[in-house]
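Researcher: For the record, we're logging two predictions in this thread. I'll number them. Prediction 1 follows.
Model: Prediction 1, sequence and structure:
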Amino acid sequence: MPDAPAPAEPALDRDELDRLVEAAAARDRDAFAALFNFYAPRVKAYLLRLNAGDTLAEELTQEVMLTVWRKAGQFDRTQASASTWIFRIARNRRIDAARRAARPALDETDPALQPEPCAPPDEMAHAAARDARVRKALEDLPGEQVELLRLAFFDGLSHRDIAERLGAPLGTVKSRLRLAFDKLRRVLDPDTL
């Protein structure tokens, strides 16, 4: 006697599907299994229509259904039906996959991605000596001139912004910065910097 055909999948209405998602939110594995059996083939077919290849559609379907399991508690039947909610997840996963595929691969030999080469030891020693001379020269400046240099060069403020912050006239700020540079120039021979 030939095998009897498998019974047709029972038709589920919107309320039943919504209840299954809500039951899955309560971690009802049987409800989730019913959801999976109902939606997984439909989601895969939908993803195939969105030009996902068979393998990608299968992977995305698994991701979608896993998301349904994990986020079933976020489902709100007053906002959308279970079908709308699940297919929106599928559409978003497909968009994410398309964006990932559109990103160019990084070229590991791109000079912008390479670390700066280490300076030779003699250059490092020269730079350290220069830095020590600059620090010493700054220590010898009056405190207000050091503050002006810090605001101008480390904080990146304009002369006008410095004047406003310190409540000093713009001309005073400019002349004090000029004095600081002159003192530094005398102490630090510009040819050795």
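Researcher: Logged. Prediction 2.
Model: Prediction 2, sequence and structure:
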Amino acid sequence: MRLRTLAACVAIAGTVSGAAIAISDFMSKEPAPPELAQAGGWMPQGPEAFRNVDILVTPPATAWAEDAPDLGPLPLLQVAFADRPVRAIEPPLSTWSRDIAPGETLDFLLSEAGLAAPDRAEVALALGAEYDLRRLRPGHSVTVASTVDGSPRIVSLAVEDGVRIEVVFGEQLSTQVVAPDPEILTLAGEAVIDSSIFAALDEAGIPARFSVDLAQMLGGTVDFRREMAGGETLRLLWREARVGEDRIGQPDLAFAALEIGGSLYEIVWPDDGSGQATIYVDGEVLRVFAQPVEGARLSSVFGRRTHPVFGNVRMHTGVDFAAARGTPVQATAPGRVNFIGWRGGYGRVVEILHGSDTMTRYAHLSAVPEDLAQGQRVAAGDVIGRVGATGTATGPNLHYEVLVDGRPTDPLSDNRLAEAAESEADDTAALYRLAEARALLNENLGSEIAKTTTERL
């Protein structure tokens, strides 16, 4: 019953659907309005064909084909490679530096700088090959440059005269001596003497060691204690070697002028290294004197003293000049070499005869020129040896004696050597040197002092 009812319903639905489709198909076949049909049939038109257009172009008169540059193909870029290997970047170095203090040794400073014992031993051997380490003294300095891990690279020892000895660590240890190239300056100054020449120079800021040179030059001519009343003016001209602001070595006197008791005493030292100085009184040559050691310090005078080695009081028969080992020693007057050899406590000695009664002795020498022979003539200023410490000596120095008829006399007061040197002096050349020195003093003082002195004569 139910099945018949369901089938009837399906049949009715199919009949209705078919009728609807038929009606829709019939309606779709009616023609569309003309406007709508025209709009629906529109399509875009294609582009017009290109047309050839002739345009006349007139080139400039200079633009001819044969003048056009031939550019040609561009070359390919070339990549250049360095033919040397890239240098390795040096690791940064740390620097340690300190001056040697009294009582300290080189090994102590190297240990403080962090060097191991084997490195310290190698450095000491390398430095000792170029410099006598026994000459180390306070004021010398040690500089150590090390890598980050503490390995030493350069050890430098700065000694006197601006000289450095450098030890460089590498595959092998190497050592080099670096000497400065100093500038030579000429300086001038004046000092008023109230108590002593030394004190006057020190107060005026002039090297006080010049007082030794003046005492040596004028000691046999002027009695400073009796003849100087105080208030005398001393004018000096000297030469210094400098590297930057540092003075290298000892300064050298070039000219000195001092008026005492109405007389003008002047001394001119030559710049030729001979050390042969000329003394003038009131513009006339008094005598020629050659210092045995130029620029040395007078460390002991003639007379009784306590012996520095034996400790008892003895007669000191000469004067001592303290100077560095190897400093040239010069004959103080013309003469003939009488003896070269060894004399007990004097050590290595050279003796020179000046006439029949006067002899000079130069002791404690470290060396004598190979071409110096007994009987040879020498002039004042000739090098006859080198400062040393042979014989009985506490350190490098020259012991200088003057003997008259075999008896020691004070070298700073005896005039016999001056007379011997004066006989060989050329007065014309000496007076020219004096005028030149006065002019140079005037120029460097920047005052009228030297000019007035010159006019006075």
